[in-house]
Amino acid sequence: MNKKILIGNWKMNPSNLIEAISIASGIEGDIKISDKIDTAIAPPFTFISEVSNVISKVSLAAQNVFWEDEGAYTGEVSAKQLKSLGVKYVIIGHSERRSNGETDIEINKKIKLVIEKGLIPILCIGESKKVRDDGVEKVKNFIEEQIKKDTKNINVNELVIAYEPIWAISSNDNARPATPDNIKEMIAFIKEITSESINVLYGGSVNPGNVKDFTSLNDLNGFLVGGASLRPKEFISIYKELL
Ligand code: PGA
Questions:
Q1: How far apart are CA 5 and CA 210, in angstroms?
Q2: Distance between CA atoms of residues 224 and 164, nearest Å
């Protein structure tokens, strides 16, 4: 059985280092070393270094990376730099980045470099509400296209996929989590078109109140959690359901 993976995506939060340390320490305090689950937090770049000093049982993830590893690229952060801070996972292609113009070609280059540097890419994919409203066949076509472009010339077994329907992400208007049936169907489809052994996570409004609805899904390998990962008690409750 694959190890479960739980990633906390802090997005552009919190607003200062003291709070970042407090959230990270709160999570670290209640995590046990386990061979069943790997728990990671993805602080903004600005806090990764300091957060790394207060965690040891929790792994580190980054929310983005640049597709070149060195050179004159003002404002960018390289995989080499992330690795030097102990980062293990890199979230790539989050819908919040795609909506700001990140392209499949860029995502593909980022995944390639991250794998080459020995980090694990978490590729985020997911359809908009409009595509979902057009029916599940349209959703599958969309997801297949996204995966095809993003993983071109890449061994899919080297990455983790996070299925995050955009309409389910808590910060979006009228967000609601996908149903267990939606998730089950999409995981089966993603594994069918990639690899049976690939790790697929679900993300979108996962919280302590609904996590039990999803943990019984056999093929689900874990969660990418946004909002609830900023509240240590909630994140730990989710973690405990995966144990
Ligand atoms: P959410 O975010 O858990 O707040 O819905 C998930 C994500 O965007 O990764």
A1: 18
A2: 8
Residues whose CB falls within 8 Å of the CB of residue 69, separated by 6 or more in sequence, listed in order: 78, 79, 80, 113, 117
**pLDDT, tens only, 185-219:** 999 999 999 999 999 999 999 999 999 999 999 89
Nearest to 123 by CA among 195, 51, 227, 71: 195
Cα gap 243→241, rounded to integer Å: 6
- Cα distance between residue 128 and residue 165, in whole Å: 6
Mean pLDDT of 163-179: 94
Residue 53 has what DSSP assignment? Answer: T
Determine the distance separating the centroid of ligand 1 and the alpha carbon of 70, expressed in angstroms.
Answer: 31
How long a stretch of residues is the chain? 243
Q: What is the pLDDT of residues 111-153, one digit of tens each?
A: 999 999 999 999 999 999 999 999 999 999 999 999 999 999 9
State the maximum Cα–Cα separation within the chain, in Å, rounded to a whole number: 48
The phi, psi pair for 130, rounded to 5°, reads -60, -45
Q: Is the peptide bond before 177 cis (omega within 30 degrees of 0)?
A: no
What pLDDT, on the 0 to 100 scale, is given for residue 56?
Answer: 96
Q: Is the pLDDT of residue 2 over 80?
A: no
- What distance in Å separates the CA atoms of residue 176 and residue 204, rounded to the nearest whole number? 8
Which of 96, 127, 164, 234 is catalytic? The answer is 164
Residues 6+ apart with CB under 8 A from 144: 189, 193
5, 63, 206: residue to mutate for ligand 1 pocket, most atoms within 8 A of CB: 206
Give me the pLDDT at residue 172, please: 87
